[in-house]
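User: Can you write out an input/output pair for a complex, sequences first and structure second?

Assistant: Here is one pair. Inputs:
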Amino acid sequence: MNFNNILQEIAKTDPEVYEKISGRRDVLRSFGSKVALAALPIALGSMFKKAYGKTTATVLDTLQFALQLEYFEFNYYHTANNTGSNSTNTLVPANDRVGFKLVEDQERAHINFLRTTIDSMGAVPFTPNNYSGNALTGNPYSPASYDFTANGAYNVFANYASFLDLAIAFEDTGIRAYQGQLPNLLDSTDIMTEVLQLSAVEGRHAAFARTVRRYYNGGTPGYNYGMKPWITTNFPPTTALQPNYLGEDNTIQKGVDITSLTGYNGNITAANASEAYDEALDKPTVTQLIAPFLL
Amino acid sequence: MDRGAGCDATVIYMKMDSSSEQQTMGSAPLHNVSRRGFLQLAGGVAGAGLLVASCRKTPPDTQYIGKGDTGLLNYLYIVEEVLTSFYTQANITQYYGMDAAELQAIADLREHQYAHRGLLKKILGDTAITGKLVVDLSPVTFADRTSTLTQAAFLEDLAVAAYNGVAQYFSDKSYVLLIAKMATVQARHSAYARQILTANNISDNTIINVQGLDRAMTPQQVMAALAPWIQTKLDYTTLP
């Protein structure tokens, strides 16, 4: 049995085998001489499990993070859709209620989808703090887990404009979070495709909340010129939400400055260039952005 | 990346191989020998004539979109070209009743498609399909608001499904991260067109399944759905 040959054979199909085994290249190379032949299969077994199990662990972490975001969004809409004592005194006006109920239902579907997927991979699905239900089948509504006013900073369930502004920021941030997680899923193409399908739905939600906000002026006729269904530069729905939009003004894609490309009349503007592409956010940044709303 | 068009002898041989495979499936290895013999013959005596005659077998009026990542990027380029032509015309022939808010948004939609199409073309460089792609806009009546917005939603929904479905096929995974950034913007476009046409109708159960997932379609499925919108003859048999 020639250990180095085994590794070289694996390296032919997976050039990163040395790196995957926790970078312990030197340890591995010394195996041949220092480890008793009888113990080698056991040592190898645990080492490869550790290396290749990492992919599954990364995918699971990513799905758990996605589930955390979907819980967050579902609870936000569920609370809003149930705020108000009767049909004339609801937070969400009658004209928009069907849409926000659809959004809520789709967030719930995402929770169920992610729970089932995580469960099928042999892990216990994420639950938010103070959640008391079953991780796989429980009602995802968990008012003890969230304070969407961020300790009074947002008058979110009493003021429809505030509700819309936060909905917009949450959806846009959710999209950015999904973009940021994609690198973890590139080798798991089935799940990667499903996550793309899921994030597209968040794109629809963002555009819905933004379009409603575009026409909602608290009774003033006209429309909000700067509020579009897409993110213009790093323009936030309200100043306090600026951190959610940092980096969204990027106009360079794949090393190409989009503003150097031709539009219908002259070059594409920086505003249009930024709007045409959503931008990724990494997990620590997203975690930091939603932290003020968690209990 | 390979050239987008031109002679591709490897493809010819592979095609022969696979068709012979079907004929000889389960039969004696003798057939393999004779097949090899045939190919050697083809490469030698009859080779010149055969290869010239079957140079990609793409007629002069047909555009070959390439294979591998090149084919996939050209495919997305075609999807974006249809959308670019659509919104260019929608801005020229503005539908009756287009107000300032909609005009602003529909001009944005056009520019976003220019931004997508232009980038894909830039990335493709000389592997981009050559010649003009003739888009057929007859499925839409641009003067009519309902027709324009309905077809906009149709094309945007299809673009979302195209991006979602093509990602898995890229060899260069950096393209996945790129097209994901475009896919969510197409989803925004669709929801907008749907919302201003019919309030609260940002999706329906033909577009989003019970798991809350948007569609993912294969390139072949998308190209079939786009057929009424494209006049140029395209050879896209290389697409998954």
